[in-house]
Amino acid sequence: MAAAVASSSALPFASLQPNSSAGLKNAIPLSPPTFRATCPRRIPPLSCVAASTSIEEDNGRRGRYADESIREEAARRDHALPANFHGFSAWYVPFGPSSDPNERYSLDDVVYRSSSGGLLDVRHDFSALAKFPGSYWRDLFDSRVGRTTWPYGSGVWSKKEFVLPEIDADHIVSLFEGNSNLFWAERLGREHLGGMPDLWVKHCGISHTGSFKDLGMTVLVSQVNRLRSKPLSRPIGGVGCASTGDTSAALSAYCAAANIPAIVFLPTDRISLAQLVQPIANGATVLSIDTDFDGCMRLIREVTAELPIYLANSLNSLRLEGQKTAAIEILQQFDWEVPDWVIVPGGNLGNIYAFYKGFSMCKELGLVDQMPRLVCAQAANANPLYLHYKSGWTDFKPVTAAETFASAIQIGDPVSIDRAVYAIQKTDGIVEEATEEELMDAMSLADRTGMFACPHTGVALAALFKLRESGVIGTNDRTVVVSTAHGLKFTQSKVDYHANEIADMVCRFANPPVKVKADFGSVMDVLRKKLVVKK
């Protein structure tokens, strides 16, 4: 499906081009005065309007002085720009209907709920963004991929104008997250899904801390860094979260990079060892609490109401601004063509709405001309959205989440239930579930074709198998399965599966090691049985 192609127009900010008569050169105190513009030629210089700050090669380096970091280069570049010269802005508004149509909050306010107690949403000034055609934004975002120019080399901050347009580059805390692999699941589609030629897996778990949570955490921690810095100097003592594992890992890493204290509430004995060790290694204060995630969430809300701790859970809508960039990345990786289906595992349910926001924003601003259909996949042991969907969206009822191998989505009372319902309804979407055996089999079968999937990806893959079997997803439908975490974080579940040690589970695709005597004949006997030589 081709993207909408906007007609080209004269480049904006022509008067601010390098070497123009606008006086930008003289506004930048640089020495020595040997500079050369290095902005991409076709792209208007929103990210580098003061391109004359680029420097002649100095000891093999282009774009900055030998003793200058990429952050310092960005600060020098941005120093030349008028305050908010582009006019882009964003703010909080109540999510959904509000009794006060004028209710809004600055992103610099520490606020998590609307005046009526509902969720908040980040709203962008679309009228300012729409002054540029969709073709402009496509070219601009594409021009930043793979670069080290601060902060645009990040998959999140390469879309800065769509994320936090007003934050200074110097306040951004980035580990160059995003830009994750879009894996062509050729063999899985061909051999196990009826010959699907256009099946893809978006590996969001190939990120700094091994999950998609990095995409949102860079935005949240950057905003906290801005609030703690001059001139705002807000008295924020630290950042806290309740977590099923991945959120705590991301928060701890980004806070460590910014030298901001991190406080983590984890349910005792309910996350993997790999997930537990990450916040410990990054120096976070880790509280192991004898309750489930929902209990940890209730406690962190109470604590952040009493102490100067900034809440980092997805109740905070800032994280969704980073997570939505995964949707924009998918469009980029398909050369701005829109897939038919995107399948997202769902627990606390912020991510399915984040994907909706990313696709919707691109459509509204003319980067593409349509939306994919969204599927939210839940574990049957923690399936409140699925039950809500099957009831015809009657009154939502939280559930008590039972233990699941997909532990990061073991949530029975999701914060973002209203957001998820909105995303599914707006995209004519579907909610599906997967039993423990279905998700583990799907994960293990995918591994047999070259992946190393996590159990949560197994949930999404199991949903795909069901939707293919029912004929809802067609053979030639371009389909993207979102992998939310790296399989290396959940190795114990794989060990137990391949050892056939999971109670009441057949483990159809188990592949245990074969014990063999240390002699040539025994080894050859096993290999002759295992190998099929094509003649």
UniProtKB/TrEMBL annotation:
Primary location group: plastid
Q: What is the lineage of its organism?
A: Eukaryota, Viridiplantae, Streptophyta, Embryophyta, Tracheophyta
Write down the chemical reaction(s) this protein catalyses.
Answer: O-phospho-L-homoserine + H2O = L-threonine + phosphate
User: Which PANTHER family does this chain map to?
Assistant: CYSTATHIONINE BETA-SYNTHASE
Q: Pathway of this protein? A: Amino-acid biosynthesis; L-threonine biosynthesis; L-threonine from L-aspartate: step 5/5
For this protein, the record's InterPro entries field holds: Cys_Synth/Cystath_Beta-Synth (IPR050214), Ser/Thr_deHydtase_PyrdxlP-BS (IPR000634), Thr_synthase-like (IPR004450), TrpB-like_PALP (IPR001926), TrpB-like_PALP_sf (IPR036052)
Limits of the Tryptophan synthase beta chain-like PALP domain: 173-484
Give one GO term, molecular function aspect.
Answer: threonine synthase activity
Compartment(s) of residence: Plastid, Chloroplast
EC number(s) of the enzyme? 4.2.3.1
**Superkingdom assignment:** Eukaryota
What's one GO BP annotation on this UniProt entry?
threonine biosynthetic process
Q: Which family does it belong to?
A: Belongs to the threonine synthase family.
Cofactor(s) this protein requires: pyridoxal 5'-phosphate
An annotated GO cellular component of this protein is: chloroplast
Q: Which residues carry this modification: N6-(pyridoxal phosphate)lysine?
A: 213
Name of the protein this chain belongs to: threonine synthase
